[in-house]
């Protein structure tokens, strides 16, 4: 049945999509739109289809007697079996303190790394523009504690480990010798990596004057006529 082949390919593609999403949790939809990411999904889909073809050539019924149920058992086995095969390593090679896996998993690691690099390059300019707009009026000294705390409060499932890593980064930023404007931008970028653009924007809007720079007073007519006094 053609539907079985389609479902098998979707299994493989979804597994690949899950890996990419896990790497870019802040904006996974942007990551999935890149050409390397699409190529990665296609590669996983083809691997699952190839596994199904092998299973049917050798007539593996997965222990199921009913022909229809056996066909769907083969689909599941091919979809998830290809995942296990592609992510397996034949042997490991030690290079100093590093252990390098040799096998299909090594190839997938290289492909996934290229996907990450491509996504980062694609999103770098966009993220720079977005964070500049969101953080343009944010006072770093007011925001470095309140803004992260509010963002993390909005989320319900951010691991404590991620919050601890963020805290260490911000501690270094607080003591860094750079302008407050640069610190605000770096604070926004670091938060965006964890919570995403929409959550960061909502948090800045909701906190309002508590974290924003005080606007310059609007000059009155008397100020203009008497600038010294």
Structure, described:
The chain has 229 residues and is mainly alpha-helical. The chain folds into 2 domains: 2-112, no CATH class; 135-210, no CATH class. It is 72% helix and 4% strand. A two-stranded antiparallel ribbon has the order 1-2. Strand 1 and strand 2 form a beta hairpin. Helix 5 crosses helix 8 and helix 7 packs antiparallel against helix 8 (180-195). The relative contact order is 0.10.
Any descriptors?
2 domains; mainly alpha; 2 strands; 72% helix; disordered C terminus; elongated; 10 helices; 229 residues
Low-confidence blocks of residues: 223-229
Give the overall silhouette. elongated
Question: What class do helices, strands and sheet pairing give?
Answer: mainly alpha
Distance between the termini: 89 Å
Instruction: Write down how many β-strands occur, each being a DSSP E stretch of 2 or more residues.
Output: 2
Largest sheet: 2 strands, antiparallel
The residue-averaged pLDDT reads 79
Question: How are the strands ordered across the major sheet?
Answer: 1-2
Q: Enumerate how many helices there are, as a single number.
A: 10
Rg on CA atoms, Å:
26 Å
Percent range for β-strand residues: under 5%
H and E string:
HHHHEEHHHHHH
Helix content: over 70%
Number of domains: 2
